[in-house]
Structure formats: C-alpha cells, structure tokens
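Structure first, sequence second, as always.
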C-alpha cells in the first residue's frame, strides 16, 4: 500500500475518518503515537480525557502513558525556551513553526500543555479490556449489567473446570445423550480421540470470539445397496488387486459406507477414494476391466459428499459441545458473581450490537461524545469482537465514520494471530481508511544497516507475499534504515560485522524429526557458548553478554530442552514457562521457611529453614551451630 502522507506532520487528523499507520518493528510506532497525541492536543484543542489510547498489556500501557507525559513536558520546556539556531529535531521544528512570530499561539499551547499534564493521570491510556471494564462500570444500564460487575477471573480457570465436567459427562452419559450420539461416529472413524487435553483444546477453540459452527448435520445420498456385491467382488480374492495394495482397505471401507448409514470414513480413506481412479495396486491384466473402473469411479464420486457429511457431523458435535460449555461457564460465573476478561469485551460489544439492531445509539453516542479520538496500538492483534466494538462507536447511524480512529500496527504480524488477532478483521478495518489517511513508517531505527539490507535482499529473492491469499493481502515491504546504530556497531574482533544475517544449512540431515531437533538445539547452544567465551563479539565497546542474546523457539518443550543445554554449558538464561510458580525451588524454600515460623518450638524445621537460600546462613554457620542446641533455641 502506498501512503499519501509523507510523515506524521502531514498525516490528516482533523475531521471524521479512519487513519491507518502501518509500521514494521523498530520504525518508531510509540514515538509516532506520542507525536500524534501532541498534535491532537495543540491543533485540535483536545484534552487528555477526550483521547483514548489503547495497547496490549498493562505494562505497555503504563510505558505509553509515561512516553506521552515526557513528550508533553518536553514540548512545554520548548515553549519556555528561545528559538535556537542550531539544528533541531523534526518535532521541535514543527513546534517552532507553530510559534514563529505568533506569541498568542505559543501562550495558548502553553496553557493546553499545562492542562494536559494536570489531566494525564486520568486520561484513558490503557488496555482495551480495562477500557471496557470502565464502560461497564459507568454505563451499567446500557450494558445490561448490575452496578457491581463482580470479581474478574481468567477465562482459562473457568474453562479448565468446564472441560473437566464435559469430560466426566462424556465418560458417564447414556446412549440417548445427544452429545454422546454426535461423538460416536467421529470416534469410530478415528477422526476424534477423546482425551481430557484434547477436549479442553477443542472447547477453547470453539469459544473464541468470532468462531461460528454449523448447528445441524448434513446427510449425503449414499449409493444403492446393489453396489455392495460389485465392490466386494473386486476386493475379495487375488483376481483384481495386488496382495499389498492399500486400495483393498479403501474399497472395503467403501462397501461398509454403502451398507451402514452410521459409518463415517476417516481422512486417509477419503483421500484413498479420491485417488482411486489412478488404479494404484490394480493388476495390469485387469486394469481396464469395466467391473474395476466402475468401482474405482464410484469411490471417487463418493469422496466429496462423504467428506462434506463428515465435516458436517464434526460441526454438529462441536456446536453442541460449545453450547453446553458456554452455558456451563455462564452459570458458574453468574453463581459466583464473576466475569472473565473476555466477557469485558463481549458484554460491551453485545450491548452495542443490541442497540444498533433496536435502532438506538445511546451507548455508542455516549462513548463517542466522551472519547471523540482513539489511537489503537498493536492494531494487528485485534479480533472481530474488538474491531466491531470500535467500529460501532466510531460510526454514525448510517455507518459513516465519525470522530478519528487511528489504527497503528504491523500487518505482517497479523498473519500469526498473536493474542487472538484476526487477519480478516485487520484487512476489513484497513479498507475503511482512505488513501489520504494512510501512513507507512518505513525507516527502521533499531537495527543495523547491514541487517536491514540483508532482510530486504532476502525477501526480494524469495518473494514479498507472506500469505497465499493473493498479492493484495499481506506482504513484506522493504524498509529504509537510519544511522542510529552506527555509533554502537556489532563487532567481531576489530571488524564491524557486515553480514549479520546467517542461515545455517545442513547438507546431510538426520531422518527423524526428533534427531534433527536435537542437532539444531545442540548447534545453537554450542554457538552461543562459543560466542560468549571467545570475547571477540562486542556491541560498540561492550562485550556481548547473555542478556543481549534472544532465541525464538516454537514450543515450551523445545525451550526447556535448549535451556538445559545452555545450563550444561554454564550459560545463564531465562525463559518463558507455563509451569506453576508453586513448583519452583523458591516456592519450596518459602514453604519450608513458613512451616518453621508456624512451628517455633520444633528444631528440625528450623534447621531446614536456616539451610535455605532465603534464610541465607552459610555452611560454616550451619556447621558451627550443629552441636549447639542453645544457639538453635536462641534463633527460635
């Protein structure tokens, strides 16, 4: 996409509309948000109470608030200083141009900046979940909520309980149970393996916002029963098929499919039917025999309707499963007076949808009047519910844009679905921004010039498209690079690293996936250890330390494997983990310490507590106190 606006200064912000800012990593998204915030304060006369800024995560929101605060304070300091002749930053040049030969504008901006600093603590710079919580609290009647929204809980906690209940239900239910009946053909076909972990995963996927499932199963018209003996004639004996032919199993399943209306073939069988006309496994002497070619053609004809029936039955099962799980979750939450974080979004979204259907705009109009401007950071990670909520507020009754909704994100990240993001929601939102309301941040300020050049060259060679949905969707756009990193280049020895992008290729690769993974992890661990031990690698003048190195891996299991390999090589490392904090060594030591405190007269627990790292006693102290009961009683 080409942007009409050259930079943040020329981007149109006045009037109604949608603004789209697309930015790769390191191109200054946060800086741009702070600069645009300043423009809204000074050019439009907005106050911090009127400007919503959302991002993902409380820590990111707090960091963004402080960045905005520092920028406002910096602008206020500029307004109090005289114009200098030395070179200034683009933002300072913009401010100086506003105040050139016009003291009234400077004084007006000073008043607005002082007011902004005073109001910033109550400004809605937060996460979208926190914003929705505020909406539910301030507009309970419009949202159909009680005055107190209750305790907030993680949806995963309730989901675990519901999944466990559904698992027990399916283990104990009778044949007349509709959910059990829907599961039977799928279990028999091998398409579904009913385990607690699998069931929890499927319920979580079904309950995601925007997921729609069919509510009824479809039945395919199966061939006449007269086909059964003709199929079995080809299958039985060694006249038509080779002894080891997989086709034999596929045709046996075809006969069963015609005979038994409840039989559902698995995916492997369906693929075998689709490929049956290739006659793989048919003896050459009877390759063109009519009785063979007709049966093979029948198998191919049955594949498509059978696959559709299988998918419909799967959809019917998952619809029933999702309905039952959703009902149980709502009952539990209502009984406990609880609300999940996802409910914060869906309650506000549903309220806006209800009033739109009813032809009223009470809640949407109230939110728009309070917050006529919104800047949404990390917009690529929004889902359909989140975008639907924003779209309802910043659209009038006829669907035209009102206010100014600024969407900032990296479209390349949208394809990964981080934080539940939906690429289709992103593309739908991006289409609402006109060419005059688009800006691309195309200069990387974080990486070195050789690395950016290498990535541009890589995508130029392998193609810019990142999806298979057409060239008009998401693609890699070459970026420029600033010289900010030139002062601290990456050096190997005395030479600046001019080829920072390395792709490791192994000509002779092991056959097994587990062996390949082990080899890759060991190579990675060895390279990191060698890099740190050599002392040759430096960033500027500082040697590379473990905290300078990041490794991205696909799963927590693989992360744990690499962590073990690095620790074997005495490389300190930290990693994200889903393990419980109560399973750590620190938690165990804390438990020992608290037990000793709760039992002050017991010497053995006290000795164990003193030996922990939390207490901090040295080995010499422990040895000195070992035979001194008076000392132990003194500690107790």
């Amino acid at each position: 996409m080409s942007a009409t606006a050259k930079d943040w200064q020329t981007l149109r912000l006045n009037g109604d509309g949608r603004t789209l800012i697309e930015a790769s990593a390191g191109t200054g998204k946060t800086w741009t948000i702070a600069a645009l915030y300043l423009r809204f304060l000074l050019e439009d006369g907005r106050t911090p109470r009127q400007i919503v800024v959302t991002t993902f995560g409380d820590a990111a929101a707090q960091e963004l608030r402080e960045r905005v605060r520092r920028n406002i304070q910096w602008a206020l300091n500029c307004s109090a200083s005289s114009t200098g002749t030395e070179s200034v930053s683009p933002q300072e040049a913009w401010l100086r141009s506003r105040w050139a030969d016009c003291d009234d504008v400077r004084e007006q901006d000073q008043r607005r900046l002082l007011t902004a600093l005073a109001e910033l603590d109550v400004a809605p710079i937060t996460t979208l979940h926190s914003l929705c919580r505020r909406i539910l609290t301030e507009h309970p009647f419009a949202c159909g909520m009680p005055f107190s929204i209750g305790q907030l809980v993680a949806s995963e906690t309730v989901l675990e309980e519901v999944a466990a209940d559904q698992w027990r239900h399916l283990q104990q239910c009778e044949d007349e149970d509709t959910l059990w009946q829907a599961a039977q053909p799928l279990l028999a076909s091998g398409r579904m393996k009913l385990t607690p972990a699998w069931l929890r995963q499927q319920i979580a996927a079904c309950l995601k916002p925007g997921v729609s499932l069919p509510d009824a199963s479809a039945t395919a018209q199966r061939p006449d029963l007269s086909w059964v003996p003709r199929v079995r004639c080809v299958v039985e004996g060694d006249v038509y098929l080779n002894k080891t032919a997989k086709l034999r199993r596929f045709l046996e399943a075809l006969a069963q499919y015609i005979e038994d209306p409840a039989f559902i073939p698995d995916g492997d069988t369906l693929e075998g039917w689709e490929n049956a006309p290739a006659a793989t496994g048919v003896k050459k002497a009877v390759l063109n025999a009519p009785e063979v070619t007709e049966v093979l053609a029948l198998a191919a004809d049955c594949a498509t309707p059978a696959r559709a029936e299988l998918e419909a039955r799967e959809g019917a099962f998952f619809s029933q499963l999702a309905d039952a799980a959703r009902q149980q979750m709502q009952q539990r939450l209502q009984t406990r007076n609880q609300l999940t974080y996802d409910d914060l979004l869906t309650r506000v979204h549903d309220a806006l949808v209800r009033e739109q259907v009813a032809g009223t705009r009470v809640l949407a109009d109230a939110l728009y009047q309070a917050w006529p401007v919104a800047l949404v950071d990390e917009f690529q990670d929004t889902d359909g519910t989140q975008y639907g909520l924003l779209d309802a507020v910043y659209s009038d009754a006829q669907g035209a844009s009102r206010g100014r909704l600024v969407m900032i994100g990296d479209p390349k990240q949208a394809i990964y679905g981080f934080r539940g993001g939906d690429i289709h929601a992103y593309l739908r939102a991006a289409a609402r921004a006109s060419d005059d309301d688009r800006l691309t941040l195309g200069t990387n300020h974080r990486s070195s010039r050789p690395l950016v050049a290498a990535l541009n060259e890589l995508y130029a060679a392998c193609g810019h498209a990142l999806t298979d949905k057409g060239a008009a969707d998401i693609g890699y756009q070459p970026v420029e690079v600033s010289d900010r990193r030139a002062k601290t280049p990456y050096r190997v020895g005395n030479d600046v690293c001019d080829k920072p992008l390395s792709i490791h290729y192994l000509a002779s690769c092991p056959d097994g996936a587990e062996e390949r993974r082990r080899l890759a992890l060991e190579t990675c661990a060895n390279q990191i250890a060698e890099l740190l031990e050599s002392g040759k690698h430096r960033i500027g003048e500082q040697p590379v330390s473990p905290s300078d190195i990041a490794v991205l891996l696909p799963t927590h299991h693989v992360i744990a494997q690499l962590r073990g390999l690095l620790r074997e090589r005495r490389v300190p490392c930290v990693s994200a983990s889903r393990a419980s904090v109560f399973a750590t060594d620190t938690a165990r030591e804390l438990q020992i310490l608290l037990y000793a405190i709760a039992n002050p007269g017991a010497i053995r627990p006290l000795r164990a507590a003193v030996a922990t790292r939390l207490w901090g006693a040295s080995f010499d102290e422990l040895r000195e106190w070992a035979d001194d009961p008076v000392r132990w009683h003194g500690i107790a």
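Margin note: The longest strand covers residues 17-23.
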